[in-house]
Structures are given as structure tokens and as C-alpha cells.
Amino acid sequence: MLRQVLLAASRSDRVERVVSTSPLTRDVVSRYVAGDVAAVVADLTREGLLVTVDHLGEEVGDRAQAEGAVREYLALLALLPEGADVSVKLTALGLRLSEQLALDNAATICERAAERGITLTLDAEEHDTIGGLHSVHATLLKEHASVGVVVQSYLPGALERCARLAEAEGARVRLCKGAYTAPGALTAPADIDRAYVRCLKVLMAGSGYPMVATHDPRLVEIASALAVLHGRDHSGFEFQMLYGVRPAEQERLARLGAQMRVYVPYGADWYPYLMRRLAERPRNLTFFLRSLAGR
Ligand code: FDA
User: Fold this and answer.
1) Predicted local distance difference test score (pLDDT) of residue 266
2) Distance between CA 31 and CA 41 in Å, rounded?
3) Tell me, what's the ipTM?
4) Which fold does the domain 34-269 belong to in CATH?
5) Prediction pTM value
6) Quick check: 242 and 277 in contact, CB under 8 A?
7) Nearest Cα residue to 262 out of 238, 234, 227
8) In angstroms, rounded to a whole number, what is the distance separating the alpha carbons of residues 64 and 94?
9) Can you list the residues of the chain whose pLDDT is less than 50?
């Protein structure tokens, strides 16, 4: 229930105005959003962590805004080390205006990224964008074999999607539970977890490169066990977690030799991202409300 309210608030301009104008929000934002992205990336890299960087922004209203997002990513690529990844939301590149526009914009970023030894992963957003996401991904793959895509385990059809994606050698697939609401999607945590494990089994058994995006300790253990079962060493898959969430666990996994990639968001358009993070964990909301009340 609380989750639904927060996700609805993530789409409300009125709530956004109230939340973003509070100076106390800054503390909560800085926990999840990088202020100086170059410095954060340098720190994480020094600690042996990999990064995927997201320039925050969703849902552009016109072509000029979509082109602005492309320029931002091109500038970002110049700051990142080889082996980094960028996470991209196709709605920020104009998906809701035209699929071709989003495809062209994503291809521009892919080309520049490839020149610098950086990969690109397409985030999964609201349920009505998932068809467009996979269509753009399939087209991009023809020219850029390393383009990754996110599958949300709460969606109906996630397992079939994983099975299809896992067929291609080296296909980069990031598996997450799903951060939005969607008609027909699983809602009970235990059901979402079971669906996650089913998808994970298919990805680990397949020919692709699974990217295990979760902070859930049980799923991290299951992924590690499945990797061993399928003869994958540390180079055959990676863990991914969000900047600011379970940082000690991120470092622990990296020390054990796992490839641990941190999803680092930055930029001014942090509001919907922050609200989704609060929806994931009610305890964070209490902390946040206390900050807003100035206590
Ligand atoms: P779960 O929510 O059950 O959390 C497990 C434990 O992790 C909690 O008990 C708590 O300890 C900790 N935790 C989780 N969230 C926390 C938070 N916000 N603050 C503090 N502690 C927290 N979703 C999507 O729909 N499309 C996408 O493209 C992506 N991309 C993506 C990339 C990466 C790298 C990650 C890690 C996640 C995503 N997600 C996403 C978000 C994902 O769908 C999901 O909402 C969150 O990861 C939370 O789910 P968990 O699997 O972590 O489990």
C-alpha cells in the first residue's frame, strides 16, 4: 500500500515541488545520488568496484530535450574509465515520442561508448515501454553486441524473455525485481523472489552474461551457488547494486573476488529515482520524513 502511494507520488508534480524545495531533502538525496560523479566513480574504482552510471532523467517532452540527454551522455563517456558501463532510460532519449528517435539516440551513445571501451545497458521502465525497449535492444544488438538490457522479474513473460536473451553468446542481461507498478505484475514479495530465482536459473544455465542486480542477501547467495553449479567463475557474471545501498556488502563481495558493479545516478532530475528508492524500503521513509520535519 505504502509502496503504491510512493510510486504514485513519484509521478506527481505537486509532491515533487514540496519535496524538492525542502533544503533537508539534500541529505537523503546525497545518500543515493552522486553529487560529483567523476569523484564518486574514481573512489569506487579505487576500491575495486565497477560502475554503471545513469544520467538521471526520464520522459522528455520534445526532440530537443532528447538531444540534450544524448549530449549529457557523450560528455559523461569522456569522464569514465575503460570497462565502465552507462545505464540509459529510453524515455529520456525520446521513446514516447518515437521509437526510431530513441533508437537513433541510443545508437549514437553506443558508438561513442564502444570507441572508449565502455558498454551501455538499457534500463527497464514502466510496463508500457517494455515492448519498445526490447525492440530497440534487438535492433541495437545487430551493430553493438555488448548492449545490455534489463529484465524485471515481477513482469509476466520475464522467464520467456530471459530464455530468449540467454541464447546469445555473451548477451548482457541485468535481472532485477522491478521498481514500478504494472498491471498483471507479481506483487507479493515471495512470488517476485521465486520468479527472480527461476529467471536466474535460466540466465546462469544459458550462454549469456548474467548481471545480478539485487541487494537481497538470499538472492546473492543463490546466484553464487548457481554460478558454481553452471561452471561460471567470477568472470562469467557480475553482481550489481545501487549507489548508497548496502555499500559494505558491495565491498565484501568485491574483496571475495566477485565482479561488483555499482549503479551510480547523478544529475538534477533525481526526484522520481529517489521516490522509487523510498518505496523499496519503508524504513528509509521514516528517516526521510524526519529530515523533512527538521528533526
Ligand atoms: P529488496 O527490495 O527485497 O531488498 C533486499 C534488501 O536490500 C532490503 O531488505 C534492504 O536491506 C536492502 N535494500 C533494498 N532497497 C533498499 C533501499 N532503497 N535502501 C536501503 N536498503 C535497501 N528496477 C527497474 O524496474 N528497472 C531497472 O532498470 C532497474 N535497474 C536496476 C539496476 C540495479 C543495479 C539495481 C540494483 C536495481 C535496479 N532496479 C531496477 C531496482 C530493482 O528492480 C529493485 O526495485 C531494487 O533493487 C530493490 O530490490 P532488491 O532486489 O534489492 O530486493
Assistant:
1) 96
2) 15
3) 0.96
4) TIM Barrel (3.20.20)
5) 0.94
6) yes
7) 238
8) 9
9) 295
Q: Give, in order, the Cα–Cα distances in Å from 263 to each of 69, 80, 211, 212.
A: 18, 13, 12, 12
C-alpha cell at position 76: 559523461
Q: Return d(Cα 133, Cα 125) in angstroms, integer.
A: 9
Total residue count of the chain as it appears in this document: 295
Ligand 1 binding site (Cβ under 6 Å of any ligand atom): 123-124, 150, 152, 176-180, 213-216, 240-242, 245-246, 263, 277, 280-281, 284
Chain mean position to CA 189: 19
- pLDDT of 133-160, one tens digit each? 999 999 999 999 999 999 999 999 999 9
**Positions marked catalytic:** 123, 174
- CB–CB of 210/204 below 8 Å? yes
- Residue 174 phi/psi, 5-degree rounding, is -95, 120
Q: Nine-digit cell at 235? A: 568472470
